[in-house]
């Protein structure tokens, strides 16, 4: 089985996961009740797998799908304000085929980039519990293991993702420094042939207040793309 088919198989298994009762109940309730603006949508209402090619040189790790974003569309960062910011920036630096992401069949392609998260289900109030994070970690470990042959850089969005990602990298075979490096925007950590970058999350709280600007996000993505050897 080649890496592409192995990753596709993993994605299917992720989408069938029912390991966390609170998250299963929430994501399915949101899919039933919907938001008025999306009343005509059939919500995905399942765990959202990663998005991007199996031979990605750069990965982006977020937090979890949004209730009316990824949980609605079935694709990471698709159909919500955070995704609008992220995909515009990826397009601006030449890593995406278009600046918008509205549905899983909108034709968007990523160039050498894979987007995933440490928690694959939409959580209430956008806050997974530590237990839910830990239960979901094996999926990220398996994904990173499959990506390892080509992966050269990773951008982690936010402190929650950073805290979740470091143990996953260790379990996937990378040597993580001790003590574990602290999260900070713009931080860069070397892990066995891979550069790990910290970036403030593309949440509305950060982007609306100016804590994370488009220029700041583009700068991290450009630097990470260079480290990954992407054009």
TrEMBL record:
PANTHER family: TYPE-5 URACIL-DNA GLYCOSYLASE. CDD domains: UDG-F5_TTUDGB_like. Residues 49-221 form the Uracil-DNA glycosylase-like domain. The keyword DNA repair applies. This is Type-5 uracil-DNA glycosylase. GO terms for molecular function: 4 iron, 4 sulfur cluster binding; DNA-deoxyinosine glycosylase activity; metal ion binding; uracil DNA N-glycosylase activity. GO terms for biological process: base-excision repair. Keywords: 4Fe-4S, DNA damage, DNA repair, Hydrolase, Iron, Iron-sulfur, Metal-binding. Gene3D superfamilies: Uracil-DNA glycosylase-like domain (3.40.470.10). It holds the Pfam family UDG. It comes from Streptomyces corchorusii. SUPFAM superfamilies: Uracil-DNA glycosylase-like (SSF52141).
């Amino acid at each position: 089985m080649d890496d592409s088919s192995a990753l596709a198989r993993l994605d299917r298994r992720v989408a069938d996961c029912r390991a966390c009762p609170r998250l299963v109940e929430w994501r399915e309730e949101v899919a039933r009740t919907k938001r008025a603006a999306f009343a005509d949508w059939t919500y995905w209402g399942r765990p959202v797998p990663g998005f991007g090619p199996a031979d990605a040189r750069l990965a982006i790790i977020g937090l979890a799908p949004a209730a009316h974003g990824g949980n609605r569309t079935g694709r990471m960062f698709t159909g919500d304000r955070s995704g609008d910011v992220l995909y515009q920036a990826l397009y601006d630096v030449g890593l995406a085929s278009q600046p918008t992401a509205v549905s899983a069949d909108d034709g968007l392609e990523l160039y050498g980039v894979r987007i995933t998260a440490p928690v694959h289900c939409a959580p209430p109030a956008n806050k997974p519990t530590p237990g839910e994070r830990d239960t979901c970690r094996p999926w990220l470990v398996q994904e990173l293991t499959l990506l390892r042959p080509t992966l050269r850089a990773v951008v982690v969005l936010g402190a929650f993702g950073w805290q979740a990602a470091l143990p996953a990298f260790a379990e996937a075979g990378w040597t993580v420094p001790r003590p574990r490096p602290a999260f900070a925007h713009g931080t860069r950590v070397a892990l066995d042939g891979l550069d790990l970058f910290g970036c403030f999350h593309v949440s509305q709280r950060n982007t609306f207040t100016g804590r994370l600007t488009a220029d700041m996000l583009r700068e991290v993505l450009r630097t990470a793309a260079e480290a990954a050897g992407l054009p």
